[in-house]
Automatic annotation (TrEMBL):
A Pfam cross-reference name: MotA_ExbB
Principal location class: membrane
Full protein name: MotA/TolQ/ExbB proton channel family protein
Organism lineage: Bacteria, Pseudomonadati, Bacteroidota, Flavobacteriia, Flavobacteriales
Residue span(s) of domain MotA/TolQ/ExbB proton channel: 98-219
Subcellular location: Cell membrane; Membrane
Membrane topology category: Multi-pass membrane protein
Presence of keyword Phosphoprotein: no
Signal peptide: none
GO cellular component: plasma membrane
PANTHER family, A to Z: PROTEIN TOLQ (PTHR30625), TOLQ-RELATED (PTHR30625:SF17)
UniProt GO BP: protein import
TM region positions: 37-58, 138-164, 184-204
Keywords: Cell membrane, Membrane, Protein transport, Transmembrane, Transmembrane helix, Transport
Length: 233
């Protein structure tokens, strides 16, 4: 009988003998769906946090890049206008450029004629507002980077509770398929939470570096403007 079966098997085909293990594959969707309702809720929350983190990152990245683009000849033109007494032309140039640096210089130009300390204070106050605008929603990324792993660990705890509950109601017989749902919840939420946290942490630090460069640019141009005003005529 066995010889007859083997004769009917095509050449090159693999014959699975009885008891031979069959390799199983598991897709991401199957892995999430196997985690139970609690795991799916936590995964959905983490997915929303990931979408929010990516959106905030690219929105702020484009805004910061736009803010850092200042014409290299901008300050030279401002100093020429101020030296020649063309205050209105200098203000018009700042309005035309419309960047954080130009708004700071424009604030200083509007205070020309007052003591240098007052001009410096006005520029510093305007600078704080500009920095606040550049850092808009960036703190949300820091919150997501810390909250996402904790939400994932919450799923781990929920999954382990479900696994222990199923084990307690198994009547003393331990079966892996009974524990599978809770274990899937525990593992998938942990991985998802760490992934979202890592993405948010990296994007947050990248935006901080980009923002610091713009702040340095603002400070350098403000000092250059104040030094020009302090030069003897």
């Amino acid at each position: 009988m066995l010889n007859t079966i083997l004769q009917n098997v095509p050449d090159g085909a693999e014959v699975l003998t009885e008891g031979e293990p069959v390799e199983k594959t598991l897709s991401i969707i199957e892995l999430i769906s196997s985690g139970g309702f609690a795991g799916q809720i936590i995964i959905a929350i983490l997915f929303l946090l990931l979408v929010a983190a990516i959106y905030i990152y690219f929105e702020r990245l484009f805004a910061i890049k736009a803010a850092s683009q200042v014409d290299a000849n901008f300050m030279n033109q401002i100093k020429d206008h101020v030296s020649n007494g063309k205050i209105e032309s200098a203000q018009a140039l700042c309005t035309q450029v419309n960047s954080p640096v130009s708004r700071l210089i424009g604030k200083g130009i509007s205070r020309i004629g007052k003591p240098l300390a007052d001009i410096n204070t006005a520029i510093e106050n305007a600078g704080r507002l500009e920095i606040y605008g550049l850092e808009k929603n960036v703190s949300v990324l820091a919150t997501i980077s810390g909250a996402a792993p904790m939400i994932g660990f919450l799923g781990t705890v929920v999954g382990m509770i479900l696994a222990i509950f199923e084990l307690a109601n198994a009547g003393g017989s331990i079966q892996m398929d009974v524990l599978a749902s809770g274990l899937y919840t525990a593992m998938t939420t942990t991985v998802a939470g760490l992934i979202v946290g890592i993405v948010a942490y990296i994007t947050y630090n990248h935006l901080v570096v980009k923002t610091d460069k713009v702040v340095y640019q603002m400070e350098a141009n403000s000092l250059e403007f104040l030094d020009h005003l302090n030069e003897p005529s």
